Protein 1
Amino acid sequence: MAGQHLTPPQPRRLSDDERILPLINVVFLLLIFFMVAGRLAASDRFAIEPPNSGSETNPAGQITVLIGTDERLAVEGEMVDAAALSASVSKRLDDGAAKQVRVKADGRVPATRVVAIMERLREAGAEGIDLLTVAGNE
């Protein structure tokens, strides 16, 4: 074997399919991640279409009351009937430091009903009531 020179084996060239496979794996992992992490905000118990407004506020730490067109009410995502609304809000106001209540009413709910509910919230101990709306197009 004298005089024979061994050359190292040549690396195999990767085909186009083999080179793109890691990229496809990363894309699928990102897709799965965003599908799992994409739903971070809690949804409302029933569909609400708020009325339009020229201003926009959304402070944190307040109690949220939902008013539906079909007489449904929810306090912090928990369905309540009209008779239990004041007690539920009063209990939550007593438990927390905030005395603010956010009202998210469907735009088709009569204004007199919204005002009546806001008066009941005030009687339950709410010091401030914010009516949530959608920013309007100008």
Note: The radius of gyration is 29 Å.
Protein 2
Amino acid sequence: MNEVSVREENGYNEPFNVRDCALITLSTGHTAQTLREFRDRLEVVPDASIYHHFWGRFLQPQFDEPEYNNDFAAWIYNDLHEKALAERLSVIDPTEFDDISALRGELIERVEEYLDEVPWVPWSRADQLFFFVRSQIVIMDTGKVLDHPSELAPALNEMSLGSIFYHFIDARRRTDAREDDFSAWLAGWGERYRPLIEAIHAIDPYFSSLKEIRRLLRDLFTGFFSESGSKVT
């Protein structure tokens, strides 16, 4: 059975439309100056705020490598000067949680444990408040359409970091299967692509930059189609 027949048999005849995206940051109206206030705000801020403070950094300009990879840990280290707690929050991987509610619960639990351990309530200066924000995603059509999986590798060379964020990271939030768009599309082409899909699933998006994710994906696609003899242009 040729690949066109496989695609038709699986009912997956749609091409892959490459999208781009940007994040618009919006205020939630919640701030915190002390660690106790921070803990209380974690209970009430919208899910979109928790999501933003873990993932929004990917689309923000970075002039150096951040020591802590989420906004919560960075504030606790830089402004509350509580390194031990910052390290506990920094190792939280949001991809390990089924939903934002579970992630929120883990954050609150670690902060509460720390508050029980220290004899004071850490606080920041008045000009170093933590501002809880949320983000709204703006999706743009790039006009680029892929008709065959072998086009993925060359297409990645031209994809913006916004495209990588949308298809590899944001897809896990907006789809029922909590899967990246590349894997979902490849699954419609039959079992031949199962090893490639499993290799994509092995990439941890949280502890890599978008540039690194793009490189890893490009290497996977290039290697797979080179070994299988499919043409990659």
Note: The chain has a mean pLDDT of 90.
Protein 3
Amino acid sequence: MPLYLDTSCFLKLFFTEPETESVHELLATEQRVIISFITELETLSQIYGNFVGGRYSKRKLNDFLSRLEGHRNKNPFEFRVVDISIFQIARRQINSTSVHCRTLDRLHLAAMEELKVRRLLTNDRIQAKAAIDLGFQVILP
């Protein structure tokens, strides 16, 4: 059964954070890890934002971008494009749940539904609650 990797956990593959080791261990046991275009876009935004904010050099930026591209050809990762219909799915999800989460997190959940992925690896507890409310299985690192 595939695992959807949201941005909060995908970024752990680039930046060392307290949950980085746990994310690596969890991913090592997976056969299929789905990276949606939303996750990729949010990751690019974080990588460029940190560069523009002066947190690292152009050389380090290029290293991060190269590593991101390298994940495309690396098992168990599958990069997937999502359809514009995720906005309608997200709207329906909002209307059918009492658990609120941020818009991009809601779009991740809609992408999961569109891609027919039922398992989520996230470090975001609010998104996790919304996912559970929708019947998704959630793994927290």
Note: The mean pLDDT is 96.
Protein 4
Amino acid sequence: MRCPYCSEADSKVIDSRESENGKVIRRRRECRACGKRFTSYERLEESPVFVIKRDGRREEFSREKIFEGLCRACEKLPISADTLEKVTDRIVFKLRENHSREVKTTDIGELIVDELRALDPVAYVRFVSVYRKFKNPKEFYSLLKGLLQEEEEKDPGEAPPA
């Protein structure tokens, strides 16, 4: 495994853990050359899943695209990369569990929306505004109004900030 900092090929494994019901092994490594630590993941290679885009095109499923989308939605928020990895794992698990060889981008998007809604309201609004292609402030207002109403229902004694 090459070090992402100095590209040296010699590293030692410090810790290994299973995740995703034993389908993934997370390895914490230390580079023998520069001493920096990094994480690698060993995953079972499964049969390819294809994503059906909105315009009908098909492309091979990419776990990295989900993780990158989550990172963009959570940029500058206090959410760790490990948390985003776990969210990505849950989304991929649900996709593989519910679909065989093909999945629509809308199905992936809705799983991401559901996860972000539970994770962080700002990340949720960011993602939804791009995913659903908001065109005007009324769409933002409608989404925020719904979120505020949900918050009031959870804690009716606290008024929303003015």
Note: The CA atoms of residues 8 and 25 lie 22 Å apart.
